[in-house]
Amino acid sequence: MIRPSRRAVVATTTALTAAVLTGCGTTEVPGGAVAAPGEEISDSCAADATETATGPVTLTDQLGRTVELAAPASRVASLEWQQTEDLLTLCVAPVAVADVEGFATWDTAEKLPEDTADLGTRQEPDMDALVTANPDLVVVEVTSEDDPVLGQLEATGIPVLATIGADASDPVGHMRALFTLLGEATGRTARAEAVLAELDATIADARAAVADAGLPTADFLYFDGWIDGGNVAIRPFGPGALFSALGAEVGLNPVWTGETDPQYGLGQTDIEGLLAVGDANLFYTATEDPAGDYVTELEKNSLWTGLPAVQEGRAHPFPTGIWTFGGPRSCEQAIGAYAAIIAGS
Predict the structure, then answer these.
(1) Which pLDDT value is given to residue 4?
(2) Among 170, 189, 169, which residue's Cα sits nearest to residue 179?
(3) Residues 338, 253: contact at Cβ < 8 Å?
(4) What would the DSSP string read from start to end of 166-210?
(5) What is the bridge-based pairing of β-strands 24-26 and 76-78?
(6) Which residues of the chain have pLDDT under 50?
(7) Are the CB atoms for 71 and 124 separated by under 8 Å?
(8) pLDDT of amino acid 329
(9) How far is C-alpha 125 from the chain's CA centre?
């Protein structure tokens, strides 16, 4: 996965974005949810009444491998943030995850229980800690069967579900498929279907709000950036990026045409490269990075201040903590942000 190293963002407070942010509390889990009573779960899980399936499970993971479980997994370890978020949305509290602090910082769509075991970094998980957590399934993100982490995990004897983080040819479809796969693995298919239906409703509402806003142009670019050797580096999200595709879902038109990677749809440019998008609306992940705030540097640059979107008040930071590579709940946050920002412009 292409992992952003700088993710802090400044807040844009609106009623609509607040409505789609998933709150969390400590409560018993009703109905079919499989998190243990007293564990911290999202408010939507507190009201969840969908059933949890029972019986043996046979899956084909995203590498085409067959994974067989005697019963739906309930003690799951997750080695990537999107999958961790998805499990929590399914009302399955992971027994262990990689990079607890990072997840809590960058993904606000769901909240981990405080006692969740930390497996170290996503790139080099602690195998001893993993075995100690005694999961009945490990979910890992890889790019191929040759990934060394996959081999290490298989050597533990714990069933391993291999997933792929993204697919620029259909980013929203891939996000949905991954969430559905995790629902099948945990017996939470009914919950997965309910959540995806909620996402569809959020998209429909946002599409109507964007249409009513009467934008001067539907063209847009989402980007993030950082300071690289004293210069501003810009990472544009192309049409194959998840946040670009979500913008398209609500009626916007992603216009980045530069080269992007085939998995995440992300490119690279500098401030001058932003001239290529003309009068497009701009949305971006702002930072408060102590190593250098690229937004502050942008605002000092005449190329940036001369862009039509900047001059006309159509360049907007996104709210804090929306993970740009997340699952349905992060997508709901992003869709709500697009709609709220545009409606308030």
Answers:
(1) 39
(2) 189
(3) no
(4) --TTSHHHHHHHHHHHHHHHTT-HHHHHHHHHHHHHHHHHHHHHH
(5) unpaired
(6) 1-40
(7) no
(8) 97
(9) 20
117-125: long-range pairs with CB below 8 Å, 24+: 119/77, 119/79, 122/3, 122/79, 122/80, 122/81, 122/98, 123/149, 124/149, 125/79, 125/98, 125/149
Separation of alpha carbons 241 and 219, rounded Å: 15
**Partners of 59 in the β-ladder:** 67
Cβ proximity of 191 and 33 under 8 Å: yes
Distant-in-sequence, close-in-space partners of 228: CB < 8 Å, separation ≥ 6: none
| Partners of 141 in beta bridges | 163
**pLDDT for position 344:** 86
Q: Token pair 């497009």 is at which residue?
A: 280
pLDDT in tens, 194-215: 999 999 999 999 999 999 999 9
pLDDT reported for residue 341? 95
- Give the model's pLDDT for residue 19: 32
Which region holds residue 72: left if phi is over 0, alpha if psi is between -120 and 50, else beta?
beta
> Could you give the dihedral angle defined by the CA atoms of residues 317, 323, 328 and 333, in that order, rounded to the nearest 10 degrees?
-30
Q: Helix, strand or coil for residue 146?
A: coil
- Map tokens 């009945």 to a residue: 136
Q: What does the pLDDT look like over 95-140, one tens digit per residue?
A: 999 999 999 989 999 999 998 999 999 889 999 999 999 999 999 9
Three-state secondary structure call for residue 70 = coil
Name beta bridge partners: 282.
221, 315
Q: Tell me the domains of the chain and their CATH numbers.
A: 15-198 (3.40.50.1980), 215-344 (3.40.50.1980)
Per the DSSP assignment, residues forming a β-bridge with 78 are 97, 139
Quote the longest CA-to-CA distance of the chain.
63
